[in-house]
C-alpha cells in the first residue's frame, strides 16, 4: 500500500492519520498524531476459529516509557512489565467501541494493537487510538460495519456559566466537572465512558449531543479516505446449517426452552441445569436427520438463539421479564454494615441474588499508590479493587490474577465514588476499598459502588454525599424498544445494552455504556437517563435505611493521623543533623512522621496519645517563640555567667545570673542544677534571634531592667585558684629504629604525613534516609 494521509479538523485540533509507511506486513496499519502525541495502530486478521463460542477479537494498548523520555524507576528492572490498569482500561475502551460492528458470522481472529510512541503531556492517547483503530479497520479487508468516530467532551465553569471543551488537554480534564468519551456512528452512540462531579443529566445529554456532531465529521472523513485507498472488504454470509438447526429447534423445542426461563433467571451461570435438555435436543436432531453430521457446538448456538429470542419476545410483547418483574421494577435490596470486627469499615449490599461484600482499609498518606507512565509519576489516595471468584456464579474455576473485566469493574466503581471522597486536607488518609463479589447475577459493579459507600460511611470517612448505581438494559425490534431497569445477568446476555449510571441525589458521577447493536439514538439515551435516575433515588433510599450518617470518628483499629504545616525553612530543624531529630520523635513517641517538600508534616500511628504527643513535639519544635511567653524547661548547661534552659524541643534560651534571682548570684549552680525543671519567662528575642530568659516574675521583675547583651562564651577566663606551673618531663631519646621507620613512611607518601596513597576511604556522615 502506498503512503496516504488524512487530516481531520475537530474543533480547534487537527488529527493526522497516515498509512503505508510503517508496519507493512500487518493487515493494515495507521500512524496517528494529535499535537506531539503519536500512536501506531496495527490490525491483523488471523485464521478462522469455529471452535470458539465467541468472536476472537483481542485489543492491546501498549504504553512505552520512551514515549515520554522516561526510564523505569525500578533499580533492577528497566523493561516495561505487565500492562498498567490505565492501559487495560484504554484497551477495553477501544474494544467496546468496535466490537458491536463486526458481523456475527465472522469468526476469524482479529488482533488490534495500539502502541504509544510519543506523548506531549497535553493530548490524551485514548481518543486518538479509537479514531486510528476505526480508520485501520475501515481501510482493511476485514468485514466491519464502521467506521466510528470518538471525541472527549469536558465541561468547565466559565464564571457563572458552564462551557463544553472538545478534546480537552490533560490539565483541562482535571478541572472539568464532566469527562465523557463518546464513540458513535453518524447517527447513533455506540459507547460511553464518563466521570462527573455530580453533574445533571441535562449536561450529560448536551455533551453527548455535541459529541455526535463531531463524530459525524470523523466518520465521513474516514469513509472518504477508505474510498480513496480502495481496499475491498471480505464478504461473509450466515451458516445455512446453523440457520436450519435454529428453525428445527424453534419449531419443536421452543416451549420447553421458554419453560426454563424462570429457573435460569435466578443465577448468572447456567451450570449443569440445562445440560439434560441440551443433550436431548441434540439426540432428537440426530434422529430426525440421520443422513447428516450435526455439530454439537452448532446445536448449542442454535439453542441459545432460540432461548434468547423467547426472552426478548416475552419482554417486547407482554412486558414480562425472566424473573416476573415489571420493566421498571428493582429487585429487593438489603444490606448491613460493621459485620467484620477488626476491619476499619465493612458492608454487604444485596440486590436480588447479587451480593457484594465491601471492606475499607485506611492508611497514612505514605501508603498512596505511585503510578508510573510515559507522562510521569502521579499518586493515588483512593483505590478500589474488585474481585469476582468463580464461586460467585456457582462454578469451579481458576483463581489467579485479576482479569481485565475485574480491573474494569473496579475502575468503574472507583470512578463512581471518587467524586464524593473528601480532600486530603479534610481527611488525610489513603483509602483502599475492596469489593468481594459473593454472588453474581447482574450489575456487580453497581453493587460494588453501593457497598463501597456504605462501608466508607461505616469507616467514618466523611463523604460529601451517598452514591448509588444501577444498570439499565434494552430490548429492540426494529423501531420498537423496551428499557429495563436493574437488569439480570440473563437480560444482559439476551439484551442489546448494558448502560450503567451512578450518582447522588444531585447528579451523575459515572457512566458506562456497552451495546450489541448499531447504537442508541439521543431520544433513547434521554429516556434511559430519566429511568436510571428514578432507580438510583430508590436505591439511595434503601441504603439510607441501613446507614444514614457517617460514623463519628474512625475505627479504633484504624491509624490516627494529624497533619501540621510548617514553614519550608523549618524543615531542616525538624529533620535535624543526620536526621537525628525526626528519628528521636519517632523513637520516643512511636508515631510515624512524614515530611513533604512543601512543609506538610503527617503524623500517624495506631495510638492516639502517641500521635498527639508527636504532633505537639513537631509544633513546638517549629513554632516561633514570642517575648513574654512562659515555659517550664529543663536546665541543659551551666556556665559561669548563666544557664541554658530547653524551653521547647531543640530550642534553648539563656538565663543570665542577673535574671536568676532578685538578689546577687555569684555562682549559677547555687540556684539551678543540670536536669532541673525550672519556670522561665522569655525576656526578649535579640536581633540575632537568640532567646534571653528570666526566672524573675511579677512585681519582682518590674524594678529590674532586662539585660539586652548576650554574654559571649569567649569572655576572658578569670581563674578562681592560684596558678600552678606544670612540670614538663624531659624528652626521651628516640630509638634509631623509630627514626628509620619514619623516614620510610615519609618516602611512601610525604605529602600526607606518611599515609600510603590510594583510594580514599568513604567519609562518614548523613545518608539519604526515608523516615
Let me know the number of strands: 29
Instruction: Enumerate the spans where pLDDT stays under 50 for 5 or more consecutive residues.
Output: 705-732, 744-771
Q: How would you state the average pLDDT, rounded?
A: 88
Helical fraction: 25-40%
Question: How many whole angstroms does the radius of gyration measure?
Answer: 37 Å
Shape: elongated
- By DSSP (H or I, 4+ residues per run), the number of helices equals 17
Q: What is the CATH C-level name of the largest domain?
A: Alpha Beta
SSE class: alpha+beta
What is the third-level CATH name, the topology of the largest domain?
Ribosomal Protein S5, domain 2
Strand order of the largest sheet: 8-7-9-10-21-20-18-19
Specify the CATH homologous superfamily of the largest domain.
Answer: GHMP Kinase, N-terminal domain
How does CATH name the architecture of the largest domain?
2-Layer Sandwich
Largest sheet: 8 strands, antiparallel
**What percent strand?**
25-35%
Amino- and carboxy-terminal Cα gap:
59 Å
Total of domains: 5
Amino acid at each position: 500500500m502506498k503512503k496516504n494521509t488524512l487530516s481531520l479538523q475537530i474543533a480547534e485540533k487537527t488529527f493526522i492519520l497516515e498509512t503505508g509507511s510503517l508496519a507493512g506486513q500487518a493487515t493494515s496499519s495507521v500512524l496517528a498524531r494529535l499535537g506531539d502525541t503519536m500512536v501506531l495502530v496495527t490490525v491483523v486478521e488471523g485464521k478462522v476459529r469455529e471452535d470458539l463460542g465467541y468472536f476472537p477479537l483481542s485489543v492491546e494498548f501498549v504504553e512505552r516509557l520512551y514515549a515520554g523520555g522516561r526510564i523505569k524507576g525500578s533499580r533492577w528492572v528497566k523493561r516495561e512489565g505487565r500492562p498498567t490498569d490505565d492501559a487495560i482500561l484504554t484497551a477495553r475502551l477501544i474494544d467496546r467501541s468496535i466490537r458491536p460492528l463486526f458481523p456475527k458470522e465472522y469468526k476469524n481472529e482479529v488482533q488490534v494493537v495500539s502502541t504509544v510512541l510519543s506523548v506531549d503531556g497535553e493530548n490524551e492517547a485514548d481518543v486518538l487510538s479509537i479514531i486510528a483503530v476505526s480508520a485501520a479497520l475501515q481501510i482493511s479487508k476485514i468485514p466491519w460495519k464502521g467506521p466510528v468516530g470518538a471525541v472527549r467532551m469536558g465541561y468547565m465553569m466559565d464564571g457563572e456559566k458552564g462551557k463544553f471543551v472538545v478534546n480537552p488537554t490533560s490539565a483541562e480534564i482535571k478541572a472539568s466537572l464532566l469527562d465523557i468519551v463518546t464513540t458513535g456512528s453518524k447517527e447513533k452512540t455506540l459507547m460511553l465512558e464518563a466521570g462527573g462531579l455530580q453533574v445533571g443529566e441535562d449536561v450529560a445529554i448536551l455533551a453527548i449531543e455535541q459529541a455526535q456532531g463531531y463524530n459525524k465529521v470523523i466518520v465521513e472523513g474516514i469513509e472518504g479516505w477508505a474510498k480513496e485507498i480502495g481496499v475491498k472488504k471480505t464478504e461473509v454470509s450466515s451458516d445455512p446449517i446453523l440457520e436450519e438447526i435454529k428453525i428445527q429447534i424453534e419449531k419443536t423445542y421452543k416451549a420447553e426452552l421458554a419453560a426454563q426461563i424462570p429457573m435460569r433467571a435466578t443465577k448468572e451461570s447456567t451450570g449443569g441445569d440445562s445440560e439434560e435438555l441440551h443433550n436431548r435436543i441434540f439426540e432428537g436432531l440426530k434422529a430426525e436427520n440421520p443422513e447428516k453430521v450435526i455439530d454439537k457446538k452448532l446445536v448449542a448456538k442454535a439453542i441459545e438463539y432460540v432461548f434468547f429470542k423467547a426472552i426478548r419476545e416475552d419482554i417486547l410483547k407482554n412486558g414480562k421479564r425472566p424473573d416476573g418483574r415489571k420493566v421498571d421494577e428493582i429487585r429487593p435490596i438489603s444490606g448491613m454494615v460493621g459485620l467484620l470486627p477488626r476491619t476499619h469499615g465493612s458492608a454487604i449490599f444485596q440486590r436480588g441474588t447479587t451480593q457484594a461484600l465491601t471492606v475499607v482499609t485506611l492508611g497514612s498518606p505514605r501508603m498512596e499508590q505511585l503510578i508510573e507512565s510515559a507522562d510521569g509519576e502521579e499518586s493515588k489516595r483512593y483505590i478500589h479493587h474488585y474481585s469476582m471468584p468463580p464461586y460467585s456464579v456457582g462454578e469451579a474455576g481458576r483463581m489467579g490474577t485479576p482479569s481485565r473485566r475485574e480491573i474494569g469493574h473496579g475502575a468503574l466503581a472507583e470512578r463512581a465514588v471518587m467524586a464524593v471522597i473528601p480532600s486530603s486536607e479534610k481527611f488525610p488518609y489513603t483509602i483502599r476499598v475492596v469489593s468481594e463479589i459473593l454472588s453474581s447475577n447482574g450489575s456487580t459493579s453497581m453493587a460494588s459502588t453501593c457497598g463501597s459507600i456504605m462501608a466508607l460511611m461505616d469507616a467514618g470517612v466523611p463523604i460529601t454525599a451517598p452514591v448509588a448505581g444501577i444498570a439499565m438494559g434494552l430490548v429492540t425490534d426494529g423501531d420498537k424498544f423496551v428499557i429495563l431497569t436493574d437488569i439480570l445477568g440473563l437480560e444482559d446476555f439476551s439484551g442489546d445494552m448494558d448502560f450503567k449510571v451512578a450518582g447522588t441525589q444531585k447528579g451523575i458521577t459515572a457512566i458506562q455504556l456497552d451495546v450489541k447493536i448499531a447504537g442508541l439514538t439521543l431520544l433513547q439515551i434521554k429516556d434511559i437517563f430519566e429511568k436510571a435516575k428514578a432507580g438510583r433515588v430508590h436505591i439511595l433510599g434503601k441504603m439510607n435505611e441501613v446507614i444514614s450518617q457517617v460514623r463519628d470518628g474512625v475505627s479504633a483499629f484504624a491509624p490516627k493521623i494529624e497533619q501540621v504545616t510548617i514553614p519550608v525553612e523549618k524543615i531542616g530543624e525538624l529533620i535535624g543533623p543526620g536526621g537525628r531529630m525526626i528519628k528521636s520523635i519517632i523513637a520516643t513517641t512511636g508515631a510515624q512522621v512524614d515530611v513533604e517538600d512543601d512543609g506538610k508534616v503527617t503524623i500517624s500511628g495506631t495510638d492516639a496519645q502517641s500521635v498527639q504527643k508527636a504532633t505537639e513535639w513537631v509544633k513546638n519544635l517549629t513554632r516561633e517563640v514570642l517575648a513574654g511567653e512562659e515555659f517550664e524547661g529543663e536546665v541543659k548547661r551551666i556556665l559561669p555567667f548563666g544557664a541554658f534552659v530547653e524551653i521547647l524541643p531543640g530550642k534553648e534560651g539563656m538565663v543570665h545570673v542577673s535574671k536568676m534571682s532578685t538578689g546577687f548570684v555569684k555562682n549559677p549552680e547555687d540556684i539551678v542544677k543540670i536536669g532541673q525543671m525550672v519556670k522561665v519567662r522569655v525576656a526578649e528575642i535579640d536581633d540575632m534571634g537568640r532567646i534571653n530568659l528570666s526566672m524573675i516574675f511579677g512585681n519582682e521583675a518590674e524594678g529590674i531592667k532586662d539585660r539586652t547583651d548576650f554574654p559571649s562564651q569567649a569572655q576572658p577566663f578569670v581563674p578562681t585558684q592560684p596558678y600552678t606551673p606544670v612540670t614538663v618531663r624531659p624528652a626521651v631519646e628516640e630509638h634509631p629504629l623509630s627514626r628509620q621507620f619514619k623516614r620510610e613512611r615519609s618516602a611512601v607518601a610525604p605529602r600526607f604525613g606518611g599515609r600510603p596513597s590510594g583510594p580514599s576511604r568513604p567519609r562518614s556522615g548523613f545518608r539519604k534516609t526515608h523516615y
